[in-house]
């Protein structure tokens, strides 16, 4: 008998999966900033629309800017209209808006936390938030100390307290350790949720499912079968209005230290014994510890000059507003790294990231070794290529496997074809934004998809070692045009090994 499959109501997605979180009061520090408008409020709206928030909760925007709650609500309404992924429903918005308050507070001043503490105590009375506190630090690291100290000293006597910390978590290993010491002075590690929003991406989690829920991949997921791995985080966007931050960070601190190394860890990790926070994070940190510091010749830096993106002329990095005319900041990094363990010894992981590359693309490509002895005559150009398992993190989320197939007709001609699984086609659901998942996980006290203190420190240790030689030389920047796939040296990095970056 044929089974009739009824299309799911996407608004019910997740409802059956878990019970709603306990009542909470969420304070967002940096409420007048970009992240709150572009990501956090749209994510909270998406959760409200899907009825994934509890009945009783309150959200407090906190920043130094003077603003009334009414004004704040209006700004947030516009933010949801502009950046939300769903239709805008007035009834849903109005219910959410009622939970929103705004407090102007300067934590740099003695007693600066008082207005917030008073507001939270009131929410316990008026909205039944039960003393449960989530503090979301969407502020630059230099603003952390007074906030963390004041909140730590004034912990609510009832309920639980959780701290969400946005990246960047420090600027190097020393500052990251200082931050960890600071937060640990007042909070337990299981109360701290360090965000790496890549871990909230559906396709990143699907990597774990692909590897560990399917028996066929694990036996070949190692140095015996894998020739090398390529991980690309490419963006066509420039630095937008973030010169102040980016000039200090560069591509290595902005993306390699966190997103790229997390993707390496998830690709290379051993199967965890379960999907609990500690088990998963223990396996990831083992990979990070096993990373071999690449020597200077295995790291390539780049900076884009003027060029064209999709036919549009764009300025070079040094001409961006707020960037110095002789800036040495890298907007591109490629590196060859190794995971020195039994599974991966001698298998290179090539990683690259850059701004103003030809298009947005995040992929993990597992390139397998060639068939040991092809019994066919294969022309080297365009003929049979090695198998590649390609995980498309974004856009076009999905997985594809490149295999050799016979071209129909007389003779034996072989061509590479792709077996594709596309999220859009298979599930017909819009994918949730990473922040929806992460906020909900934190509300539920689940830290699996957050970075633990030791992971962050391992990531910084590697980055510190990679940038150490950079102090000694001045690169010839810019060294590639915007809209091209990075400097020539990045191609050389692979050509030296008889390999090349995946074709685009
Ligand atoms: C952020 C970086 O962490 O990640 C940005 O600071 C970058 O520079 C962004 O653009 C990329 O995220 P996504 O989700 O657009 O791939």
Compact overview of the structure:
Helices cover 33% and strands 21% of the residues.
What does this structure look like?
33% of the residues lie in helices and 21% in strands. By secondary structure, the chain is of the alpha/beta class. Helix 6 packs antiparallel against helix 12 and helix 8 (243-268) crosses helix 9 (277-290). The model is unreliable at 1-16 (pLDDT under 50). 6-O-phosphono-beta-D-glucopyranose is lined by residues 235, 254-255, 362.
CATH superfamily caption of the largest domain: Dihydrodipicolinate Reductase, domain 2
Largest sheet: 9 strands, mixed
CATH architecture of the largest domain: 2-Layer Sandwich
Report the β-strand fraction as a percent range.
15-25%
Number of domains: 2
* The top level CATH class name of the largest domain: Alpha Beta
Provide the low-confidence segments as ranges. Answer: 1-16
Number of helices: 13
Proportion in helices: 25-40%
**What radius of gyration results from the CA coordinates?**
24 Å
Average pLDDT over all residues: 92
The hetero molecules present are: 6-O-phosphono-beta-D-glucopyranose
- The total strand number stands at 19
What's the shape?
Answer: globular
Report the CATH topology name of the largest domain: Dihydrodipicolinate Reductase, domain 2
């Amino acid at each position: 008998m044929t089974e009739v499959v009824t299309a799911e109501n996407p608004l019910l997605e997740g409802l059956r999966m878990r019970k709603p979180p306990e009542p909470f009061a969420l304070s967002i520090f940096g409420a007048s900033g970009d992240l709150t408008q572009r990501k956090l409020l749209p994510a909270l709206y998406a959760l409200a629309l899907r009825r994934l928030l509890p009945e009783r909760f309150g959200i407090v925007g906190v920043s130094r800017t003077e603003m009334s709650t009414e004004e704040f609500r209006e700004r947030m309404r516009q933010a949801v209209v502009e950046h939300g992924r769903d239709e805008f429903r007035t009834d849903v918005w109005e219910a959410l808006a009622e939970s929103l308050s705004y407090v102007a507070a300067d934590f740099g001043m003695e007693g600066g936390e008082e207005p917030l503490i008073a507001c939270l105590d009131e929410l316990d009375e008026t909205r039944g938030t039960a003393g449960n506190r989530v503090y979301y630090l969407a502020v630059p690291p230099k603003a952390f100390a007074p906030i963390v100290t004041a909140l730590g000293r004034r912990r609510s006597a009832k309920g639980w307290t959780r701290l969400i910390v946005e990246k960047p978590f420090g600027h190097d290993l020393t500052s990251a350790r200082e931050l960890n010491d600071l937060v640990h002075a007042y909070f337990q590690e299981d109360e701290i949720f360090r965000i790496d929003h890549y871990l909230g991406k559906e396709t990143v989690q699907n990597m774990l499912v692909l590897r560990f829920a399917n028996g066929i991949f694990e036996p070949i997921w190692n140095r015996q079968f894998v020739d090398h791995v390529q991980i690309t985080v490419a963006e066509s966007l420039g630095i937008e209005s973030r010169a102040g931050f980016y000039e200090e960070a560069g591509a290595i601190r902005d993306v390699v230290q966190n997103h790229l190394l997390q993707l390496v860890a998830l690709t290379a990790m051993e199967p965890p014994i379960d999907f609990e926070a500690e088990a998963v994070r223990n396996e990831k940190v083992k990979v990070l510890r096993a990373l071999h510091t690449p020597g200077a010749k295995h790291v390539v830096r780049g900076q884009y000059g003027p060029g064209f993106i999709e036919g549009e002329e764009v300025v070079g990095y040094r001409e961006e507003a707020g960037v110095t005319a002789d800036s040495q900041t890298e907007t591109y990094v490629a590196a060859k790294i190794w995971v020195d363990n039994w599974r991966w010894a001698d298998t290179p992981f090539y990683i690259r990231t850059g701004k103003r590359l030809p298009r947005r693309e995040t992929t993990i490509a597992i390139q397998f070794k060639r068939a040991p002895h092809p019994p066919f005559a294969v022309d080297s150009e365009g003929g049979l290529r090695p198998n590649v398992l390609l995980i498309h993190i974004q856009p076009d989320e999905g997985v594809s496997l490149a295999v050799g197939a016979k071209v129909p007709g007389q003779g034996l001609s072989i061509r590479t074809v792709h077996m594709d699984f596309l999220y859009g086609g298979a599930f017909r659901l819009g994918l949730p934004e990473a922040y929806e998942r992460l906020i909900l996980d934190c509300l539920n006290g689940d830290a699996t998809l957050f970075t633990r203190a030791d992971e962050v420190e391992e990531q910084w240790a590697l980055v510190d070692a990679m940038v150490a030689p950079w102090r000694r030389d001045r690169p010839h920047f810019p060294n590639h045009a915007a809209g091209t796939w990075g400097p020539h040296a990045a191609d050389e990095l692979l050509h030296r090994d008889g390999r090349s970056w995946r074709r685009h």
